[in-house]
Amino acid sequence: MVIRTEGLSYSFGSQQVVKSLSLQVPQGSIYGFLGPNGAGKTTTIKMLLNLLKTGEGSIFVFDKELQTNRIAILKEIGSLIEQPAIYAHMSGRENLLNRAMLLGVNDARVDEMLALVKLSNAAHKKTGQYSLGMKQRLGIALALLSDPKLLILDEPTNGLDPNGIIEIRELLVRLTREHDKTVFISSHLLAEIERMATHVGIINHGEMLFQGSIDDLQAISQPLVYIETDNTVDAANLLTRNGYEVADVNNDSLTVPFTSKKQMGVINGLLNQNGVTVFAINKQQKDLENLFLSITKSN
Ligand SMILES: Nc1ncnc2c1ncn2[C@@H]1O[C@H](COP(=O)(O)OP(=O)(O)OP(=O)(O)O)[C@@H](O)[C@H]1O
């Protein structure tokens, strides 16, 4: 395991915001650390980076205990929390050169990093003129300069447009597949994490609700087929008679568990042939809130 915590807890005054977390982050994984705002993600990340002193419990990174091996461990971690520290009056390349000098890293690595995060074309532009997505990618390039084995990113896609999100996602996948990194990334968006993560940990109110591989997660976050019809009761009866498990019925719509696109076509045909007008039929992914409900139920 690249990160392993045991009974990790933290309190601000009398408010316990991280409760006995046991994180298990495998080598080479993209570990999505998911939870709604205020769940305790940033506090946990700050402890992993030794920016907050561990409350209770212990943290092992690369199988070494953090407190007693701080310098050796932190050298191998690149991180991005909140906004990256970027000088707006300098170009992307100058920002990287500046940091490279401080770290004693070879200048050649600067151009390598610019290429890796796809900023070569904007290398000489002042970062004050960068889009938010470009700034985040520059932040990741800065974090990667010293060639760390582990990258810890706190909500790096916050506020990005869909294109910006896709670019970050592709970059992180490349980093793990081609550059042998392990990525720990926090987010409050399930759909975003599901598309890139190999492993997930889901927390709420500081407590771990679920931890496992993305396949384990998908087994409990099964999507639904959402159907809008002119007569949901007739539709529900018809579907039940034909062996479908109707999950939910209300005045305008009903849902059944999704199994395949083909099955959606069959359902559509069945309803239409039996005089039920289908206004809409689509696959509906569960959001974090619905997932919490299914996790709590299955527990
Ligand atoms: N410096 C602080 N002093 C007191 N309470 C704090 C402090 N920092 C965070 N908290 C509280 O700790 C809890 C967890 O916050 P944290 O920032 O770790 O959550 P988060 O999951 O990262 O959420 P967000 O995505 O909103 O940052 C929240 O209730 C927050 O109000």
Automatic annotation (TrEMBL):
Tell me which InterPro entries the record gives: AAA+_ATPase (IPR003593), ABC_transporter-like_ATP-bd (IPR003439), ABC_transporter-like_CS (IPR017871), P-loop_NTPase (IPR027417)
Which keywords annotate this record?
ATP-binding, Nucleotide-binding, Transport
Write one Gene Ontology MF term: ATP binding
Domain (ABC transporter): give its ranges: 3-230
Q: What SUPFAM superfamilies does the entry give? A: P-loop containing nucleoside triphosphate hydrolases
**Annotated Gene3D superfamilies:** P-loop containing nucleotide triphosphate hydrolases
Family recorded in the similarity comment: Belongs to the ABC transporter superfamily.
User: What is this protein's record name?
Assistant: ABC transporter ATP-binding protein
- Native source species: Mucilaginibacter pedocola
